[in-house]
From TrEMBL:
Family: Belongs to the NusG family.
CDD domains in UniProt: KOW_NusG (cd06091), NGN_Bact_1 (cd09891)
SUPFAM superfamilies on file: N-utilization substance G protein NusG, N-terminal domain, Translation proteins SH3-like domain
Taxonomic path: Bacteria, Bacillati, Bacillota, Bacilli, Lactobacillales
Domain of life, per lineage: Bacteria
Name recorded for this polypeptide: Transcription termination/antitermination protein NusG
Keyword Chaperone: no
Function text: Participates in transcription elongation, termination and antitermination.
Matching Pfam families: KOW, NusG
Database matches in InterPro entries: KOW, NGN, NGN-like_dom, NGN_dom_sf, NusG-like, Rib_uL2_dom2, Transcrpt_antiterm_NusG, Translation_prot_SH3-like_sf
Keywords linked to the UniProt accession: Transcription, Transcription antitermination, Transcription regulation, Transcription termination
Every KOW domain range: 134-161
Record's keyword annotation contains Acyltransferase: no
Domain NusG-like N-terminal: from-to ranges: 6-123
Length: 189
């Protein structure tokens, strides 16, 4: 396989409640069967949810799509996964099939790039680091999106991994901290 191989995300249907077990099984089978060059990432679509109970904030992980696992696979032939990768995933314990497959041995359709971007954002992950922002702590920025749109803030911390900055914004005469994505700020003020 070459470095320029195309990749696509596919949705695998599992028994509900077995998503993490399927993820572990598939990761193990990928290694033991030598498929690491065709099966890349396996994700359970989850997000962190905060709730307030009895005055306390409790955080839990919630499965967005019970019964489904996302698998990133190589698609070297006409946008389809290889027969070997299809066989390995399809025959993993707990997998009942692929979403977008028409049955009778047909291969499934991959997710569209827009769908993948939406899912990754929802899970707090970004597919690719697209913004290279040259800012420093203490710098004044202009906010161009969200509830503080049009206001100025001062950067307090920078997190390149999450593609976010923490800034303080003056609201009703008080400094209010807020987290902003790199795409939500403008450094040219």
């Amino acid at each position: 396989m070459t470095d320029s191989i195309e990749k696509a995300w596919f949705v695998v249907h599992t028994y509900s409640g077995y998503e993490h077990k399927v993820q572990a099984n598939l990761e193990s089978r990928t290694q033991t069967m030598g498929m690491a060059d065709q099966i890349f990432r396996i994700l359970v679509p989850e997000q962190e949810v905060s709730t307030v109970q009895d005055g306390e904030v409790k955080t839990s992980i919630e499965n967005d799509f019970p019964g489904y696992v996302l698998v990133e696979m190589a698609t070297p032939q006409d946008g389809n996964m290889t027969d070997e990768a299809w066989y390995v995933v399809r025959n993993t314990p707990g997998v009942t099939g692929f979403l977008g497959s028409h049955g009778a041995g047909s291969k499934p359709n991959s997710l569209l790039p827009e769908e993948v971007d939406l899912l990754m954002k929802r899970m707090g992950m970004t597919g690719e680091k697209v913004v290279d922002l040259d800012v420093e702590v203490g710098q004044t920025i202009k906010i161009v999106a969200g509830p503080f749109n049009g206001m100025e803030g001062i950067i307090r911390s920078i997190d390149p991994e999450k593609q976010e900055v923490e800034a303080t914004v003056e609201v009703f005469g008080r400094e209010t901290p807020t987290e902003l994505g790199f795409n939500d700020i403008d450094t040219n003020i």
